């Protein structure tokens, strides 16, 4: 098979199929056969492009981390309210495949070991989301919309943890927007300065 576009297309097809299986069936349903069946291709296709299934899963997780929408959050700095911007960004993270990746990483020891080689701390998707949130909070602090002594790294980690609890049950109802906003406001509320008029 030629390299380049064709390889990227196969990888994207397999990763998209893995996401659908993971969201529908959970980590225990995510097998190489389930992925190739969902992708409507022969099982050998996956093994032709990846050393084994855990190598595939590691690449899948890293690919999904890259899809976190950091650009939209950066563009939100100085606009709207800090609480609304954070609530929207956190909802986007946890309504994506991110919430399903957490139990997948916990579920598979070999996957966790492979990810540790490139991601030394935390659960990769949550750690990257915390980095994204901390960057936004730092920019808002620099803009004077958050207290100058705000510990943005601790706030970001707390926001990720608190919001993850709202979204953790993949089979339950999604939290309402007001509930997410209330959680964000409780975490950052005292550090947010009122909008200037």
UniProtKB/TrEMBL annotation:
<dbReference type="Pfam" id="PF00440">
    <property type="entry name" value="TetR_N"/>
</dbReference>
<dbReference type="InterPro" id="IPR009057">
    <property type="entry name" value="Homeodomain-like_sf"/>
</dbReference>
<dbReference type="GO" id="GO:0000976">
    <property type="term" value="F:transcription cis-regulatory region binding"/>
</dbReference>
<keyword id="KW-1133">Transmembrane helix</keyword>
<feature type="transmembrane region" description="Helical">
    <location>
        <begin position="86"/>
        <end position="107"/>
    </location>
</feature>
<protein>
    <submittedName>
        <fullName>AcrR family transcriptional regulator</fullName>
    </submittedName>
</protein>
<keyword id="KW-0805">Transcription regulation</keyword>
<keyword id="KW-0238">DNA-binding</keyword>
<keyword id="KW-0812">Transmembrane</keyword>
<feature type="DNA-binding region" description="H-T-H motif">
    <location>
        <begin position="31"/>
        <end position="50"/>
    </location>
</feature>
<dbReference type="InterPro" id="IPR001647">
    <property type="entry name" value="HTH_TetR"/>
</dbReference>
<keyword id="KW-0472">Membrane</keyword>
<dbReference type="InterPro" id="IPR050109">
    <property type="entry name" value="HTH-type_TetR-like_transc_reg"/>
</dbReference>
<dbReference type="GO" id="GO:0003700">
    <property type="term" value="F:DNA-binding transcription factor activity"/>
</dbReference>
<keyword id="KW-0804">Transcription</keyword>
<feature type="domain" description="HTH tetR-type">
    <location>
        <begin position="8"/>
        <end position="68"/>
    </location>
</feature>
């Amino acid at each position: 098979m030629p390299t380049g576009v064709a390889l990227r297309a196969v990888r994207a097809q397999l990763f998209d199929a893995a996401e659908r299986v993971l969201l529908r069936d959970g980590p225990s349903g995510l097998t190489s056969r389930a992925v190739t069946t969902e992708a409507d291709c022969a099982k050998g296709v996956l093994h032709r492009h990846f050393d084994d299934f855990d190598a595939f899963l590691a690449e899948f997780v890293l690919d999904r981390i890259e899809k976190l929408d950091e650009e939209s959050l950066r563009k939100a700095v100085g606009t709207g309210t800090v609480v609304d911007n954070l609530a929207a960004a956190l909802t986007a993270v946890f309504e994506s495949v991110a919430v399903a990746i957490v139990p997948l990483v916990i579920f598979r020891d070999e996957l966790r070991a492979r990810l540790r080689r490139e991601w030394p701390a935390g659960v990769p998707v949550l750690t990257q989301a915390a980095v994204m949130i901390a960057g936004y909070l730092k920019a808002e602090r620099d803009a004077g919309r958050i207290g100058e002594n705000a510990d943005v790294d601790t706030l970001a980690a707390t926001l990720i943890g608190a919001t993850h609890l709202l979204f953790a049950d993949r089979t339950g109802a999604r939290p309402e927007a007001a509930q997410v906003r209330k959680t964000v406001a409780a975490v950052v509320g005292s550090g947010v300065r009122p909008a200037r008029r």
